[in-house]
Design goal:
Layout lengths: L2 H22 L4 H19 L6 H31 L2 H15 L6 H10 L4 H4 L1 H12 L1 H25 L6 H4 L2 H12 L4 H12 L3 H66 L1
Helix pairs in contact: 1-3, 2-3, 3-4, 7-12, 8-10, 8-12
Length: 274
């Protein structure tokens, strides 16, 4: 292949990438993708009422290949490196490829799971959802500390419960450490905790109200608020990072503009001196 032919091929590839990139950045492109994902969800819901319906199966097949086409367009427009540098694109790629791999599989439950997971593609498609999930992922290290604190508190209260309330209620409540943990989970979620757990124990052990009240205050209110505070702090942190990035970009542009003005001023002075 001659140099001229190589240049023509390179030019065609460049124009194709430019065209596909413009298509990806088109304002309604993402809206169309969201609409297809919603249609996919409606098809899955409809199949729970009309199992084995041929029309729904055809629609599902079409949607899968539309997702494949979208994936190919994005890879062409962004390039392999640009596409796979975004973790959400990697996630989309895994879901789409998984749909193709398991489409003809005899494992119906696996196929249904993959089809349901396609709905999670709504997260990267909507910036607000993506921002929340990104902040949640960033806050995981801090949340592990809160998880450790929660395990410690639950363990202490479970041991106290098995020590003093083992014989008050049936075995499945405070008969052992693991049953006590499950009972405390029921209490902290406020699921029939007063009528089924707390009141019968308080009737037999009057001081037990302090046990339940203190556990609810610490386990439900304090820890829950800690989790919310950590996640909100990371949400605010991302906004601050975006603001700093914008200010940095404005500062750089301002410096470049000042440099250009200085050069123009110097040219005018040099011309006047001549």
């Amino acid at each position: 292949m001659g140099l001229k032919q190589k240049e023509e091929v390179s030019s065609k590839n460049s124009s194709l990438r430019t065209y596909t990139r413009q298509l990806i950045e088109y304002k309604n492109f993402q809206a169309i993708v969201i609409g297809i994902i919603l249609l996919n969800g409606l098809v899955i819901i409809a199949e729970t009422y009309f199992t084995g319906n041929n029309l729904l199966l055809v629609l599902d097949n079409i949607i899968v290949w539309i997702f494949v086409l979208e994936l190919i367009v994005k890879i062409i427009g962004l390039g392999f490196k640009g596409y796979f540098s975004d973790k959400w694109n990697v996630f989309d790629f895994s879901i789409v490829i998984g749909s193709l791999v398991f489409y003809a599989t005899p494992f119906v439950s696996v196929l249904r799971l993959v089809r349901v997971l396609r709905l999670i593609r709504m997260i990267p498609a909507i910036p607000a959802l993506r921002k929340i999930v990104d902040s949640l992922m960033k806050s995981l290290p801090a949340l592990t500390g809160i998880l450790g604190l929660s395990i410690l508190i639950f363990s202490i209260y479970a041991i106290i419960g098995t020590t003093f309330f083992r014989d008050v209620l049936p075995y499945e409540f405070f008969g052992s450490f693991h049953t006590a943990l499950f009972t405390l989970l029921q209490v902290v979620t406020f699921e029939s905790w007063a009528s089924q757990v707390a009141r019968p124990i308080i009737h037999e052990v009057p001081w037990a109200w302090a046990y339940f009240v203190s556990f609810i205050i610490i386990g439900a209110l304090v820890i829950l608020n800690l989790v919310v505070a950590v996640i909100l702090s990371y949400l605010g942190q991302e906004d601050e990072e975006n603001l700093k990035e914008q200010l940095g970009r404005f500062y750089k542009e301002n410096q470049e503009l000042k440099s250009d003005i200085q050069e123009i001023k110097q040219l005018i002075l040099d011309r006047d001196n001549k």
